[in-house]
Amino acid sequence: MEDIYSNENNLIEEHNLLLEYLGGIVETYNDPENSLTNNQNFIFLKSKCQTGLKNWEYYYEEIVDDQKCQKIDYKKLTIFAEEANGNLTLYDKIKKEVFLFAPDHSFSNVIKIENQPEYSFYKFSKIQNFNDYVETISKQWILNI
Q: In a designed cystine with 38, which of 15, 31, 102, 116 is the match (CB 3.0 to 4.6 A)?
């Protein structure tokens, strides 16, 4: 159990509320293939959340420059889930929008963001914000999908 009150907390209010009542998820695997919780190193854990793109920053900068795309200010995004293959799920702390940074994916439930390189930033088909993400996981658990 993490001490959610320790350290400086740069998470959005909804994320803090979730941590207070539910907590985070450590290492999931063998969930249904289309589940948001499938093969994750972590989801929601405060101690693992950070801003930026972790080890993917150089990769993203390079492909944006090579393909002359518009750069997303990833330094303002917070990682709240990390897939075992390195894909990151992030939110914007102001707009609370959810993004998937997926340099390695084969998802059918994502939409490429306009003017972004392939294998970079995506949006989930039916998820706009953090609350939608949490509600989607909840429905998937209830329906066992």
A: 31
Nearest to 125 by CA among 116, 136, 117: 136
Of the candidates 74, 82, 78, the one whose C-alpha atom is nearest the C-alpha of residue 116 is: 74
Amino acid present at 111: I
Mean pLDDT by 10 residues, the chain (145 residues): 61 94 87 88 94 96 97 96 95 97 84 94 96 96 81
What is the pTM for the complete model shown?
0.91
| Alpha-carbon distance values, 98 to 6, 67, 141 (Å) | 25, 24, 20
Number of H helices, E strands in the chain: 3, 8
Classified as helix, coil or strand, 93 is coil
